[in-house]
Amino acid sequence: MTLLAHAIAAAPPASLSAGGLRGRPLAWSEAAAGLGLWSTEWTPDMKLERPDALEHHRLVERICAAQPCLPVRFGTAFPSVDAARASLDKRAEALRAALARVAGKSEIALTLLWREPPAREVTLPAAGPGRRYMEARRAEFTFREARRARAESLVERLTAELAIERPLVWHETCTSASVAVSLAVLVPTERAHERKAELTRIAASFGDVVAVVNGPWPPYTFAGVE
Amino acid sequence: MKELTADDASLLELVDRLLNKGVVLAGEATISVAGIDLIYLGLNVMLTAVETLEKAQERRAS
Prior knowledge:
The structure holds 2 protein chains of 2 kinds. Chain A is 38% helix and 27% strand. Chain A is of the alpha+beta class. Chain A folds into 2 domains: 2-102; 105-222, 2-Layer Sandwich (Alpha-Beta Plaits). Chain A is elongated, with a radius of gyration of 22 Å. By secondary structure, chain B is mostly helical. Chain B has one domain (6-61). In chain B, 58% of the residues lie in helices and 0% in strands. Chain B is built from 2 helices and no strands. Chain B has helices at residues 6-20, 41-61. The A-B interface holds A 2, 4-5, 8, 42, 44, 46-50, 53-54, 56-57, 70-79, 83, 86-88, 90-91, 95, 98, 109, 111, 113, 117, 175-179, 182, 210, 212, 214, 217, 220-221, 223-225 and B 1, 3-4, 6, 9-10, 12-37, 40-41, 50.
């Protein structure tokens, strides 16, 4: 029996209803280190589809609401209960530290999208093709650097105005032509909606970007183990 | 290039977290992933890796 992993939690397991992905049994596999894995009993020949990813998310939300947990990357599977236990035992110390870090916390996600599309090509009718090419490259580079600097300044303002510690913030800038900032903050779950409203208010004050705020979500971004 | 809407961005952020964040555990089996929209470079990379694994498995099986 294959186990499709959802989340890691400390023993004892919370009391959860038995339904896992696609209504298959939800299983708890306890390792020797006092940790356990919530997973769905699966078969390797079943392909994972997009709805499964979203259902995995809902399952992780359900588990995290019942007890502190570390979401496992979607699509992770173990060929047996013993393999799952061995994997947890091997990294038990780091997993316990990560669990302590995210316990009682949720993630709020913020995406800032540029209002204006990237600048168009520079036109220099009198110039030759080589010069036009070089000028266009220069303009593109200058534009890209300006956007990156602006995106970083937005992150600085958000972090300062939220008054949140750096280790509780993760961000990337300019990941595509449309995205200025992708940012995640780890906040106490009981204050998650209040913090989300603050983040929304701060982001709405930026004139050149549209803010999309999501969450609270399980602490996906902060569950990483070195 | 398609303009990214707020709904696209929300889905993109969530799917990115499901596939690229969270705990990575060693010793896992491979389960194929199909039908997930390729809306983000990270997903493309991830799914390309899965496809490569699938092809390698098919080659081994044949």
